[in-house]
Amino acid sequence: MALIVHKYGGTSMGSVERIKNVAQRVAKWHAAGHQMVVVPSAMSGETNRLIALAKEIQAQPDPRELDMVASTGEQVSVGLLSMALNAIGVPAVSYAGWQVPVRTDDAFTKARIESIDDARVRADLAAGRVVIITGFQGVDSNGNITTLGRGGSDTSAVAVAAALQAAECLIYTDVDGVYTTDPRIVPEARRLARVTFEEMLEMASLGSKVLQIRSVEFAGKYRVKTRVLSSLTPPDIDLATEAESGTLITFEEDEQMEKAVISGIAFNRDEAKITVTNVPDRPGIAYQILGPVAEANIDVDMIIQNASVGGNTDFSFTVHRNEYQKAIAVLNDTVKSRIQAGDIVGDPKIAKVSVVGIGMRSHVGIASLMFRTLSQEGINIQMISTSEIKISVVIEDKYMELAVRALHKAFELDQPAAA
Ligand code: ASP
Ligand code: MG
Fold first, then answer.
1. How far apart are CA 219 and CA 296, in angstroms?
2. Which of left, alpha, beta for 371 (phi over 0: left; psi -120 to 50: alpha)?
3. What number does the ligand 1 atom closest to the CA of 156 have?
4. 135: CA distance to ligand 1 center in Å?
5. Residue 59 dihedral angles phi and psi, to the nearest 5°
């Protein structure tokens, strides 16, 4: 018997029928003697619908009021799931974030969880009840309802699991785990039985949409054993089989197995590239270019500056595509005149493709295999960045799928991992 947290995404909660299936699955775990806490998302499409309603009234809704509206989808979910459990004879109780309470800061629409009070939940668990807590929402120190940002229920679930020191947090979703890459692009992509938290963090930040990145950070910080698995299996499948399915997020030091060098290929088309040409190469230049960009609250990702020949160089960086126009405007308004640079040129039609794996730490030749593969496909690399466990390149976006397929094959990710 253990304390287990289940999280169900919007698709799993998408209709009354599906909610009844979730209830069956939770009932099975409860019947096996586990203490169960369940954190569901809003029914699929519901949060989008609520945000659209708000925007019909105000183009830029007041963030506090927006959270008041957007958080309600989860309140419907927890109530319905609790009823579905009661209807099949399983005692259950639902709570909104403020009732637990799940305390957050006051950054409306992107609040961070600060603490979770476990007293009420533990009392219910001790009385044999399944406890159902809204995902996505919390309450700030002034009693205002907050939300954690899109996809935030993952983070709610992992945070609840951390607060209760749960044995495991199972994230049920419409994919059956974490894959070596997106199977829609590479049909031979394989599900990873295990992936380390460090790799998962890179994959989440590089475009894999399986888990909200903050939930992965939380799992790492509080060492929550987290598993991603399918909610589409029949709810009455054998519990032991279900408990071993999907992908387990592990910690590097716990990994005894010989790991593949590369675990996955991540990609995204979320960024745009900006180059300031003919920049005088002198102290303070990077600061003079990126300072005003940061002041405009624009996040910068990759940055490159070449060594100068004859005193001038080009300076390139990437920003999110949504902030591309804003970044260009900032540079034209403030930077250009100040540093006597050449032109500000940009390209939103780029993609970032990355190979990720902790095995990179102890293997040489990963970068050269990556670059050779891209060169054999005739793909030009525009920018490169590396960390200890990933190499990312920026390429023209029309070659993204080709690059992902070629790299997946070159790193033999379609082959079963060596044991
Ligand atoms: N319902 C919220 C959203 O759609 C939170 C979540 O589903 O994780 O973003
Ligand atoms: Mg989600």
1. 31
2. alpha
3. 8
4. 8
5. -60, -45
* Tokens of residue 403, six digits: 């690059």
Contact 326, 258 (CB under 8 A): no
Domain residue limits, the chain: 3-252, 256-419
Structure tokens at 321: 């595509």
Asked if 13 and 44 touch (Cβ cutoff 8 Å), the reply is yes
| Domain 256-419 CATH (choose: 3.40.190.10, 3.30.2130.10, 1.10.150.240, 3.10.690.10) | 3.30.2130.10
Question: How would you classify the pairing of strands 168-173 and 226-230?
Answer: parallel
Tokens of 317: 């960086």
Question: The tokens of 197 are what?
Answer: 């938290």
Q: Give yes or no for residue 251 having a pLDDT over 90.
A: no
* Residue 234, CA distances (Å) to 23, 36, 237, 344 in order: 12, 19, 6, 56
How many angstroms is it from 47 CA to the middle of ligand 1? 6
Q: Give per-residue pLDDT as tens, 145-172.
A: 999 999 999 999 999 999 999 999 999 9
How many residues would you count in the chain?
419
CA end-to-end distance (rounded Å), the chain:
30
DSSP three-state, residue 332: helix
Residue 276: HSE in the Cβ half-sphere, 13 Å Cα cutoff: 29
Q: What is the pTM of this model?
A: 0.89
**Distance, CA 18 to ligand 1 centroid (Å)?**
17
Ramachandran angles phi, psi of 202, nearest 5°: -60, -45
